[in-house]
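Moderator note: this is an archived Q&A kept for reference. The question asked for a predicted structure of one protein chain; the sequence and the answer are reproduced below.
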Amino acid sequence: MEDPSARIEIEAPLEQVWAIMLDTVRYGEWNPFVERAETAQPPAVGNPIVLHVVWANGRRTRSPERITALQGPTTSADGTTTARMSYAYEGWPSRLGLVRGVRHQVLTQRPGGPTSYETVEEFRGPLVRLAGPARVADGFRRHAEGLKRRAEAPAGRTSPPEG
């Protein structure tokens, strides 16, 4: 079974996309998958984060997670800039060893190019199929599209989330 993932190119500077990703208070303005993310501000490694998820069928769930990585924009010698946010699932199935998941969100921008957003959930455990990898992948796709719309919107304009 392949880990759920999504990828999209965003015509905006990486630093702008990163700022949107860190502004968890405003997720409801643009994110059709994670309508709310509760965490201390600013987000920090080690902080709990509760994601309020909306599935494609309209059902909602809360997903308790813990931030495991926040690597702000860093530029390498070749001019490529990257940033990463990761968090680990901490719900009861994880505590029981039935489903473990770590989501990575990575931004990459080469000089003069668009920002590439990639996300993947590394699922492990005997009940992974019950976690619904296909519905998670659909949510990641909607999340990526919402992030693209938000980052590419003219300054001051927000667009409502689309399903």
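Archived answer notes: The first helix runs from residue 14 to 22.
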